[in-house]
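Worked Example 4.2. Consider the chain below.
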Amino acid sequence: MKKLYLFLSIAVVTFLSSCGSVELLRFEQLKPAEISFPDELKNVAIVNNMPKEEHGKLAYLRNTAKEFEGDGASFMQGLADVLAEGNYFNKVVVCDSLLYVLEEDDAPQYHVLKAPQVRQLLGDLDSDMIISVDRLYVRTGIGQVWDNYYGMPFDAVNASYAALVHLYVPTRDKAFMQVTDRDTLQFELDLTLSDAIIAKETSEYAGMRIANKLVPYWCEVQRIYYDGGLAEFRDAGVALRENDLEEAGRLWSNLYEKKKGKNKMHAAFNMALYCEMTDQMDKAVEWLDKAKALVGETNVGDKNTITFYQAALQKRMQELNKLKMQMDRFKGRE
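Applying the procedure from the previous section yields the following structure tokens:
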């Protein structure tokens, strides 16, 4: 399976090509969830409230477009796996029973859980909140994916989905929150691909995406740094790529103290990256301000680079404020 991504590296190549010796760095950061829960909400249960649908296991036919329900069990399991691995809640329970009942002559649609049903589930599953996996609508069609190795496009199946989840607590008669997600996956079109595989993998992926809205999660971010010209910059780049962050920071700091002009500015910019990666966000902003003060008015490439990074640092500081609030629930936990 191949997922469509818009890589920052594309923007770096086109937007910053005039900057010269610029390298791309990828590393992981812990991101806050979109939704924050009170500390007393400790145990959650996930239930399958999706209509059951049989998915074809024969090879996917070319030039066809289809619409079908995703796989509720896979959707639920993908969601549960991420929640359990995150260890954010004390307990994550999965209910294997299929709750959705399709009445006679009734088209498949979202069925709400009734208050008595919610209270019974909360009691039976010893949980503080019910996460009801309700719908996963999938639409497929033929597309193409570019293969960098062969330098040519290959046929693929585009699978666009819309996911719907509701959250229930005992103090509310109705769901207190609705969570949705939309995305598109690409599957290589070969003789092994079937509707069943598309439904299963799309559902698992949707579950993981929904989970990232509910609990903090690790995500790859991309940054740039200056690596070239002077031997010290190249040595620092080698240290950074070998995960020796302290050595890279030492070399960049020495360059800032000893050099002038553009090299001094590049060193200050890199020190901002070092401070971000070592969770010294206030110092990262200070270093970037130093770099900005050293940029000449005619150096458009470097000015754009700094502006780009300033926006990224501001966003990260906002994330950290929210993340700190969400992670406070772990204080005092043994």
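The chain has a mean pLDDT of 88. The first strand starts at residue 2 and ends at 3. Compare this with Example 4.1 before moving on.
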